[in-house]
Design a protein that fits this description.
Helix content is 14%, strand content 33%. It is an alpha+beta fold. The chain is globular. The two termini are 36 Å apart.
């Protein structure tokens, strides 16, 4: 190995922990119980500057630029609960979670979707680490405009304004949403294999009123009743959103964080992620403590899979 290669490896090793550690430190400094919410524009600018320095290597990921070419098959051991192999799961990687913020990653195969959902009272910073991701996001129209139907089977809907509808491609993929702006309700669709680094502050917690709710969006004309569009806007800029159950085809599996170790202050109490649509208020739940690793159950939407189910290829 030549001297330049050795220097390159040394510099990479030096840079990686610096970037991720600095991000963690900035989160600890910014997201505290006494801090203003949402964070100031100066704080957000610091996050943007720091996230711009972080790519796949800084968090222990490979740039999965090639499509998965494994043959067709089935997930799951039970003949009654098998899923087409091409319906590959999204991988969730926990980096850190405490009572003030969550740092995590989502790794998407092509065409994978995280359906439309909200982030009540939360600020979320997202960075596309590699690949391309389509983001569609809404904010509620205020004051609330609600249509209630007395017909059985017709949903109650609320009017929302389209905030984002675009493809974000790495490395220029940092964005932020706020409790009432920036596209607080969003859905992700992977255009290519891609990964997203997320910071959620504060984290989902049903006891604190931060439950993850899923929605279906309907065109404005579906429930307009001939009303004029709010603010003389365009019809395509609005949609009616209806609450739906956690989608049964939302498949996720846990992945291990392989990036640089984060040095936490001794006073830091690290929470094990335990999001569940019914129990904890989040989109999914990994039961990491109640059972041994080999028998561990993972909950995705309304489905339960064993550790063995998740990794049969």
């Amino acid at each position: 190995m030549c001297v330049q290669q050795i220097r390159g490896l040394f510099n990479m090793t030096k840079k990686s922990p610096c970037s991720v550690q600095a991000l963690f430190d900035l989160c600890k400094q910014t997201f505290t119980p006494s801090a203003t919410s949402p964070p100031s524009s100066q704080a957000i600018h610091k996050f943007y500057s720091l996230l711009d320095t972080i790519g796949p290597k800084e968090v222990g990921l490979k740039d999965e630029s090639l499509e998965d070419e494994r043959g067709h098959g089935l997930f799951g051991l039970s003949v009654f609960n098998r899923v087409d192999r091409w319906a590959q799961p999204i991988t969730y990687v926990d980096i850190h979670e405490d009572q003030n913020f969550t740092m995590c990653m989502f790794c998407f195969p092509t065409s994978a979707v995280i359906p439309l959902h909200d982030h009540p009272g939360m600020t979320v910073l997202s960075k596309v680490l590699y690949g391309s991701l389509h983001v569609k996001a809404y904010d509620w129209v205020e004051p609330a405009c609600i249509r209630k139907s007395e017909q059985i089977g017709h949903p109650t809907v609320r009017l929302a304004r389209l905030a984002v509808d675009k493809v974000i491609t790495a490395p220029h993929g940092t964005s932020v949403l706020y409790p009432k702006s920036g596209g607080n309700l969003h859905c992700f669709t992977a255009i290519t294999p891609c990964a997203v680094l997320d910071i959620l502050a504060p984290p989902y917690l049903e006891a604190a009123g931060r439950r993850c709710t899923y929605y279906h969006d309907y065109p404005y004309s579906s429930f307009a009743n001939g009303d004029e569009i709010v603010g003389n806007g365009k019809e395509q800029d609005y949609a009616w959103l209806a609450v739906v159950d956690t989608p049964e085809d939302l498949y996720m599996r846990p992945g291990r964080y392989m990036g640089p170790a984060i040095h936490r202050p001794p006073s830091t109490t690290r929470q094990i992620p335990s999001w569940h649509p019914k129990e904890k208020g989040g989109p999914y739940y990994f039961d990491k403590e109640s059972t041994p690793a080999g028998d561990r159950e993972f909950h995705f939407g309304n489905k339960v899979s064993t550790h063995e189910d998740l990794f049969i290829f």
